């Protein structure tokens, strides 16, 4: 058995850490940046906090801001054209998972043009060359796309969220600056934070988990339980923002290398068919799938409960497992995550199609309990 660990070349953490871009760009000899972001981040002045660093250091750049949440093949193709037109030699991704994932796809295709149709990148693509260098600055505390070897692009034509797994895509530099997260509204803080919790829990119980990944995921769960309510309830609490920023990165360090499970498998079709934000989909499904996986991952559920602050010393294994599910449910309610699919515009008639797509998703085989389409449909129905 060989356990693989792929991480960024360099990463920086802490309030104001975005300022290191100036010296890193000079040291690496990069010439011109394409900034990959979205229109809201321009509008809310989040991208400007990074652009100010480039201006101060006289680093040339152009902006591509056409990324949409749940980014599409069309977004990627437009980004490739923008990179080429700009004459850029590196990218700065500013945003949530959507902007960072789009930059990864652009960077891979620029250096591996045989994949320029984008859709052939789905799954584990056999690219030969590393991506164009990407400096990734997350503005949400959730996806950890700045440290993962995955990116998720929606194939509009086939109504599918394609999960692409490729070590060549990992951003060279990750800068986790919680000041970029202060402007997140409560709902976004909550849903992206619950995405991070889902990564930590699925990464802990996934079939590929081992001692080192368990160490990261357990710590991430502990930090998210501590900091997420504070970040949601007091959005300007920089200590809470910093705690969440670091926690979601730690979760990513592990899940990127060991895989996820059925929550993500079931969340992806909700994004593809109904454009449900990724964090909301995961947060809503997490307690239902935890209930389903309970027997298959019982010992780890005690770890989850303990990391979430429950004293399980006098509990049986069953009681501790129930306590883990309850702690997750309570946290979701506290940060006001919707509780049912019917509340977020998913029609009951769509559930069978979702169940088939979830069964085929790249994340599903990592689930600790072997599953099938009928059982997935039953979980969607419970969540409905
Ligand atoms: N690469 C991976 O490993 C990985 C892991 C999990 C999810 N994903 C993917 O990431 C995407 C979701 O990313 P996300 O949840 O980070 O959200 P997102 O990037 O889709 O952004 C959602 C919205 O939040 C806004 N926003 C972001 N930061 C903000 C801030 N600081 N202040 C105000 N508004 C802000 C954006 O402008 C956008 O409108 C999905 O496509 C999902 O499938 C990727
Ligand atoms: Fe996720």
UniProtKB/TrEMBL annotation:
**Which domain of life does the protein's organism represent?**
Bacteria
Fe-containing alcohol dehydrogenase-like C-terminal domain segment(s): 189-384
Keywords, A to Z, come to: NAD, Oxidoreductase
A single Gene Ontology MF term assigned here is:
lactaldehyde reductase activity
Needed cofactors: Fe cation
Where does the record place the Alcohol dehydrogenase iron-type/glycerol dehydrogenase GldA domain?
11-178
**Oxidoreductase found in the keyword field:** yes
Report if keyword Ribonucleoprotein is assigned. no
Q: What is its EC number?
A: 1.1.1.77
What InterPro entries does this protein map onto? Answer: ADH_Fe/GldA, ADH_Fe_C, ADH_Fe_CS, Alcohol_dehydrogenase_Fe, Lactal_redase
Which family, according to UniProt? Belongs to the iron-containing alcohol dehydrogenase family.
PANTHER family on file: ALCOHOL DEHYDROGENASE, ALCOHOL DEHYDROGENASE 4
Q: What is this protein called?
A: Lactaldehyde reductase
Species annotation: Alistipes ihumii AP11
Q: What is the lineage of its organism?
A: Bacteria, Pseudomonadati, Bacteroidota, Bacteroidia, Bacteroidales
Task: Supply the gene name.
Answer: fucO
